[in-house]
Amino acid sequence: MATVFKIYPENPQENLLDKVVETLRNGGIIIYPSDTVYALGCDINNTKAMEKLAQIKGVKLDKAQFSIICNNLSHLSDYTKSIDNATFRLLKSHIPGPFTFILEAGKNLPSAYKGHKTIGIRVPDHSVPQLLVEKLGNPIASTSIKDEDEVLEYTTDPELIAEKYDHLVDIVIDSGYGDNVASTIVDLTSGEPEIIREGKGQL
Asked: What pairs with residue 42 in β-bridges?
């Protein structure tokens, strides 16, 4: 059964954040809030956890398109190919925020991402995921929680999320109601920004 932690962005409790990070380090799966929708996440360096995350989403790991959650742009050079100044300026002016930026994958991506030519990078404007990444010391693999309901698309109530994923994840972080609009996905691999999915962010 999943443990539910109430952690709010205005005053996140250090001891609870530390427990979440410990769970991530031990290969656990978490559900966490962001500046858009609630999402599933795990440590990108733990292949077993990545496989479990793919299983929950019903895809094979090598086909999974998990973005990575960073707390700032310092991880960019670790996981992406070098980018030009214009791209860096664009990222800097929209991060943190409700965007997922697709960039060319670098050589240092963990083994679970091997073979991927691109990677989605996201820095949510929300203190909880930012602090988790900071404490963990590396990004979190992430995928939005979709809803089977065609009308809703995303579940916003953390209590309902905890009920549904109770036996699939280790921790659910309840930060109050989430948004029901996902991030805007912007492809930056061609040199010109191309919006792949219109979401919450305005480019």
From this structure: 141
Query: What tokens appear for 189 in the block?
Result: 């691999």
- CA-angle at 71, arms to 68 and 72, nearest 5°: 105
**What is the rounded distance in angstroms from the CA atom of residue 17 to the CA atom of residue 129?**
10
- Residue 184's beta-bridge partner residues? 99
Distance CA(126)–CA(129), nearest Å, equals: 6
What crossing angle do the helices spanning 127-136 and 14-25 adopt, rounded to 10°? 60
Q: How confident is the model over 61-116, as pLDDT tens digits? A: 988 989 999 999 988 888 999 888 999 999 999 999 999 999 999 888 888 888 88
Q: How far apart are CA 83 and CA 189, in angstroms?
A: 9
